[in-house]
Write a structure and sequence with these properties.
This protein is mainly alpha-helical. It has 2 domains: 63 residues, no CATH class; 220 residues, MetI-like (MetI-like fold, Orthogonal Bundle). The chain is built from 13 helices and no strands. Helix 6 packs across helix 8. The chain starts with a helix and ends with a helix.
């Protein structure tokens, strides 16, 4: 019964999240000073007249009250009809489905780089002497503070323009995704490296570390086989949540690397005032955040049960 209640609660949270996100999306689009019908008319015609713009507004349904527009959109969305892109004229869902796989590949590669780099950097921060730890801590803090688009621009300037190690365009295979993934993973990697360092410092004070040293185990074995696994457990839920945020944060970096993924599509939709695409993209990003949060909650519950079971067995 408790499991069913938890499932019902999560479903209600998902429905409420989608409702609020879609409401805010509609409101923000309507309060914007740029009229989507005018933007569409200027793309489709050389110099549209006010009468032609009004005809397009009626044709697109933008003349209806906001409540009616939202009700119509919800009705069609429940049937997986999110309208057609005002730029390409193709179904919005088709445009989204074609762009998402590229972004998912970049995000998954970034997550692997982030996880491996954070573990190595976190252990290095922990093992460094105090002076080196201060310098490394300052460098990681600076890396966290640098915007992703600036990292991507400098990355291209250094490795493509000056060193000629990579190509600005025409990359194929896995290299097409690795370069934006590295730029996307840098800030989270440094952030989690600091957290891992802090967790290792906490684990060092635990009784089991004292007992392992009494058994004569080496410091490296204690660190990598005992302290590190315990410390990482506490960070798994946060790391899973960050994957959803990474999907949303890939927009600018994809634009810099000319990768036609979800982020590229989002920026084009905003610049072109493509309202059907914007509503669908916002809903999809909310879905990704909800999914990663649910997975994070499940992982956290499982880890808590595991720790409780260990505690009971130890007693």
């Amino acid at each position: 019964m408790k499991r069913y209640r938890s499932m019902i609660r999560r479903i209600m949270e998902v429905i409420l999240t989608f409702f609020l996100v879609s409401i805010f999306s509609f409101i923000l689009m309507r309060v914007s000073p740029v009229d989507p019908a005018t933007a569409y008319a200027r793309r489709a015609m050389v110099s549209p007249t006010p009468e032609q713009i009004q005809e397009l507004r009626v044709e697109l349904g933008f003349d209806k009250p906001l409540v009616i527009q939202y009700a119509d959109w919800v009705h069609h969305a429940l049937h997986l009809d999110f309208g057609k892109s005002l730029v390409t004229g193709r179904p919005a869902l088709t445009e989204l489905v074609q762009s998402v796989p590229l972004t998912i590949k970049v995000v998954l590669i970034a997550a692997l780089i982030e996880a491996a780099g954070a573990i190595l950097a976190g252990c290095l921060l922990y093992l460094l002497p105090k002076a080196g730890r201060v310098i490394a801590g300052f460098l990681t803090l600076a890396a966290i503070s640098i915007p992703g688009f600036y990292v991507a621009s400098v990355y291209l300037e250094l490795f493509a323009t000056r060193l000629h190690w990579i190509s600005v365009v025409g990359n194929s295979g896995i290299s097409r995704f690795i370069h934006p993934a590295v730029c996307l993973a840098l800030a989270p990697m440094c952030f989690y490296a600091r957290l891992i360092r802090n967790e290792l410092q906490k684990e060092e004070q635990e009784d089991y570390v004292f007992y392992e040293r009494c058994r004569g185990l080496s410091e490296k074995r204690i660190l990598f086989f005992h302290m590190l696994p315990h410390g990482l457990i506490a960070l798994i839920p946060s790391f899973l949540q960050n994957i959803g945020l990474t999907i949303a944060g890939a927009a600018i970096i994809e634009r810099v690397f000319s990768l036609p993924g979800l982020g590229y599509l989002i920026i084009d939709s905003v610049l072109n005032r493509d309202t059907p695409m914007i509503h669908l993209e916002v809903l999809f990003l909310a879905l990704m955040l909800v999914i990663t949060n649910i997975v994070s909650d499940l992982a956290q519950d499982r880890l808590l049960k595991r720790n409780l079971t260990r505690g009971e067995n130890a007693q």
